[in-house]
Specification:
With about 450 residues, the chain is α/β, with parallel strands linked by helices. It contains 17 helices and 13 strands.
């Protein structure tokens, strides 16, 4: 079994252990290509194998990503794998909302239920593992791994890097991410650089810094990251008994995640594990919506935008590096791109918290878009829908608290739940309680 980098335009190929992020001929992004015929010739019963591995509690199969090692990076030596137990994320049905919208099923895939609280762990285990092997086994002169981030990537990189003993560098937009996101790389001992710019500005800097091949780039323009993230779709279909949902709805910022989702589903189809494909919906915040604007033109043109402030800070990106991959994936999956306003994403996030969730604002974007598409008929009644939740709501506790305190500027908190302050008088307490629960 083999895998390698290939230019998305088919120009050139490179080994996975080569320090390369873009095609040296045309400058476009790369993708990881697997030898599908070799995987077919192996005669492995993949469904049985994946199930047995999950039940075995044997390293590295304690990871939902490395459970599918042959599909992710068959060139990895197990001794160099850097895993923190990522993957195996819950898939939760939301029957109340499914009934409200006339759907046959509505599920949230909780990718934030992982070590650092976001889906970025799924890709970072693959990238840091490969770097670990390149340093320890192949003696490559890599001194550090670096990323630009709106919070989640920096947390994942710093955690996995420090666990492996590899120095990490993160570039963050100053005063534009939550405290919970900022403190993670600080706590893990990363070199944290807070730049007076936005994410797009940080990305420009890290691309320049990583031209020195001793500093390895960990952003999603590095295709190794995408390989781990493609597990989201594969694992979801597994959890549904290999029944493919009609729609996946996924929030998008730098746009690597949508192509990752598509890649995993395509691989399942090529290897005969599924016989139909879903439609993919890409959800953007209205304040950072370059792909939505491109979609409105039929993808005939793409123009970066200056991203405005949004509660969904991790997707506050106006010039996404993975746009070509995302567009190609959306065309393949008959995709839809829609946007959600700040009011819509805040209210919808709070609404689904009433169903027992604790959704991040990016999940709020995806849920708001899902509701919008069902209401206008673009998602048909009777459909089954999976919404990808990309991070844990605890990372955004401040903004969620501000919503319920009715303190978010420009937002009407329609689902606010304010604590009731009372004297410790049982009779007064009972009076209020009986009014509330009647």
């Amino acid at each position: 079994m083999n895998a390698y980098f290939r230019c998305i335009n088919g120009c050139e190929t490179y080994e996975l252990n080569e320090v390369v992020y873009q095609c040296k001929k045309c400058g476009d992004l790369l993708e990881v290509v697997h030898d599908i015929e070799s995987l077919k010739r192996s005669k492995i019963d993949w469904k049985k194998t994946f199930a047995e591995r999950r039940a075995s509690y044997t390293y590295p199969y304690t990871s939902g990503v490395w459970n599918k090692k042959e599909w992710v990076n068959p060139l990895m030596d197990d001794k160099y794998i850097v895993s923190l137990g990522e993957g195996y994320n819950p898939l939760t049905p939301i029957p109340v909302a499914a009934k409200e919208f006339g759907l046959s099923g509505l599920y949230i895939k909780h990718c934030g239920n992982t070590h650092t609280g976001s889906f970025k762990d799924l890709g970072m285990t693959v990238l840091v593992s490969m770097v670990n092997q390149m340093i320890r086994k192949e003696k490559k002169n890599i001194k550090a791994v670096a990323c630009a981030s709106t919070g989640d990537t920096s947390a994942a990189l710093s955690s996995y890097g420090s666990y492996a003993g590899i120095p990490t560098i993160v570039f963050l937009p100053h005063n534009k991410i939550s405290i919970a996101q900022l403190v993670q790389p600080i706590a893990n001992g990363a070199i944290v650089l807070a730049l007076e710019t936005d994410f797009d500005g940080c990305m420009k800097v890290v691309k320049e810094v990583s031209k020195d091949n001793t500093i390895y780039l960990a952003n999603s323009m590095n295709s190794l990251r995408i390989e781990g993230q493609k597990i989201v779709g594969i694992e979801t279909v597994e959890q549904l008994g290999y029944n493919v949902p009609d729609y996946f709805v996924i929030p998008g910022g730098n746009l690597g995640n949508v192509s990752a989702l598509g890649n995993g589903l395509i691989m399942m189809k090529e290897l005969g594990l599924i016989n139909k494909m879903p439609r993919i919906v890409l959800a953007q915040a209205e304040n950072a919506n370059p792909l939505y604007l491109s979609y409105k033109t039929g993808f005939e043109k793409f123009e970066p935008v200056k991203a405005k402030k949004t509660l969904a800070s991790a997707i506050q990106i106006g010039d996404p590096v993975s746009r070509e991959k995302a567009i190609r994936a959306l065309k393949t999956f008959n995709g839809i791109v829609e946007q959600a306003s700040e009011q819509e994403l805040a209210d919808t996030s709070a609404k689904y918290d009433r169903y027992g969730m604790f959704t991040c604002p990016h999940t709020g974007v995806a849920l708001a878009v899902m509701e919008k598409l069902v209401k206008d008929g673009r998602i048909e009644k009777g459909s089954s829908v999976v919404v990808i939740s990309t991070a844990h709501g605890l990372k955004f506790a401040n903004s969620k608290a501000a919503y319920h305190e009715k303190a978010l500027e420009g937002i009407v908190s329609n689902y606010a739940n304010i604590p009731i302050v009372l004297e410790p008088d049982p009779e007064k307490v009972k009076k209020v309680l009986y009014e509330k629960i009647k």
